[in-house]
Design goal:
Blueprint: H1 3-24, H2 30-35, H3 39-54, H4 60-87, E1 91-97, E2 102-110, E3 117-125, E4 132-140, E5 148-155, E6 158-163, E7 168-172, E8 184-186
Parallel strand pairs: 4-8
Antiparallel strand pairs: 1-2, 2-3, 3-4, 5-6, 6-7
Helix pairs in contact: 1-3, 3-4
Length: about 190
């Protein structure tokens, strides 16, 4: 096998590793969570790199077989990505600023095929490339009384989530790391 093909196989293995990483390791780093959490794209890239590496093989039938299988794998990964994106589309609903360097991020997404929506809340600690983000809660509005109403800071280390019927869910933050000590899940 020529050196070019060996380099392409190594690159394919790296791309495949990046595709599998989100399934086994959930990172708090925003850089990894938002920019490297694209398993279907990395899977398709790994398949295409494998197909390019197969072009350097000596046996014609093996070259064609690997190229066809890699093409099918890339097509399958892209199709599954399109289906997954259509069901998991999230929309930014804004940020609630807190004591520096903290912000609460609000994201809204549809809940299945119905008219309900899900509000996801997360706490972000801004620190440049080392910014971290942790889940605060998930609220599904399938029951009108359980719909998300507001979130506010009740102190430098505490947050309160309120739903439309007036119930509140207080969440304390760890004083050392800033990580939420609990989360809220209502009909999620």
């Amino acid at each position: 096998m020529p050196p070019r093909s060996l380099v392409l196989v190594a690159a394919s293995l790296c791309a495949g590793g990046l595709a599998v990483l989100p399934y086994f390791h959930d990172s708090d780093l925003v850089l990894l969570r938002e920019h490297l959490n694209h398993p279907f794209a990395f899977g398709a890239l790994a398949c295409l790199l494998t197909a390019c590496a197969a072009l350097g093989l000596r046996w014609g039938w093996l070259r064609v077989l690997i190229a066809v299988l890699a093409g099918l794998g890339a097509s399958g990964a892209l199709f599954v990505a399109l289906v997954a994106l259509s069901f998991t589309a999230t929309e930014e609903a804004g940020f609630v600023d807190g004591p520096a360097p903290y912000r609460i991020r609000l994201q809204q997404s549809p809940a299945g095929f119905g008219p309900d929506s899900v509000m996801r809340l997360s706490l972000r600690r801004d620190d440049g490339l080392l910014s971290k983000e942790w889940d605060l809660g998930c609220i599904n509005d399938d029951d009108p009384d359980d719909a998300f109403d507001s979130v506010k800071w009740t102190g430098p280390g505490s947050v309160e989530i309120r739903v439309t019927d007036g119930r509140t869910f207080p969440i304390a933050l760890d004083p050392a790391s800033g990580r939420p000590q609990s989360t809220t899940a209502l009909n999620c």
